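TL;DR need C-alpha cells for one chain.
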Amino acid sequence: MALVELRGVKRVYSQGKVKVHALRGIDLDIEAGEFTALAGPSGSGKTTLLNIIGCLDTADEGTVRIAGRDVSRMNRDELADMRRNHIGFIFQSFNLIPVLTAKENVEFALVLQGRSRQDRARDEERIMAILADVGLKGMEHRRPGELSGGQQQRVAIARALVKAPTLILADEPTANLDSKTGRTVLELMRKMNETRGVTFLFSTHDPMVMEYSRRLITLKDGLIASDERREARDGPSRPAGRP
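>> reply
TL;DR here they are.
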C-alpha cells in the first residue's frame, strides 16, 4: 500500500465568473521513504496538489488516502488531527514564532498535539537531539531574529521532524536561501530521508531541489506531464515504472 494514494483528484477554483481548473484528474502514488519533488510552471497545480495532500485543501472530486486513511471523507476536525499528528510542514517563509527560542519553536509542535506537562518533560531529550541532528547544538536558546536564514530553516525542519510524522511536505523550502545555504539544507533533508526513513514531498521551481530529488514529477495545466525516478543524485534518471 502506498503512503499517499490519489485517484481522479480534481480541484476547481472560482475567480468571479471564471472557473480555474487547478487539477484535472490526478492519479498518483507516493511510497514511504520517497524523496520527491513536484515541479512545473506557475499555475500548473503543484501547490494545490501539495495543499490537498497536506489536508490544507480538499478535492472537488476523487479520493485521497494517506497511510490507508481516506482523508477525502474527513470532516474539519479530523483533517486538523491528521495535520497535527501525521504531517510535518516546511514553508519557504519558515513560519517560526519570533518570541520563542529555537527549542521552544520545536517544542510548540508537541504542545499543539495536546501533550501533558509530564509528556513534554520526557520530550526534552528528544527535542535537543533533533536540534543537534540539524546542526543547531548550542543555538537552542536563540530566537529566530538571532539566526541566519539557513539556521531558521533548520529549526523549521526540526519542528517538522519532532512529531515523527508520516510525511513531510515542503513548499519551496529553498526559495529564501542563497544557493550555498540551500544546498546545505537539502543535504540535511536527504540525510533525514536516508537515516530516518522520513518521506519528503516538495513543491519547487528550484533546479537544485529537482537535482536532489529521487523522483521528479512535473505538472502542466493540472495534469502530470512526466514522472521520473532517479537512483541517486546526479545519476541517470528513468521514467517511473521502468526497471
